[in-house]
Amino acid sequence: MSDINKAWVRLCPLDRVSSGKALNLNINGQRLIIARCGDNISVMQGFCTHMLYPLAGARIQDCVLTCGLHHSKFDIRDGSVVEWSTLPGLAGNTLEAVREQKILRTFETRVDDGTVYVLWPTDDPNSVRVRL
Question: What is the pTM of this model?
Answer without folding.
Answer: 0.85
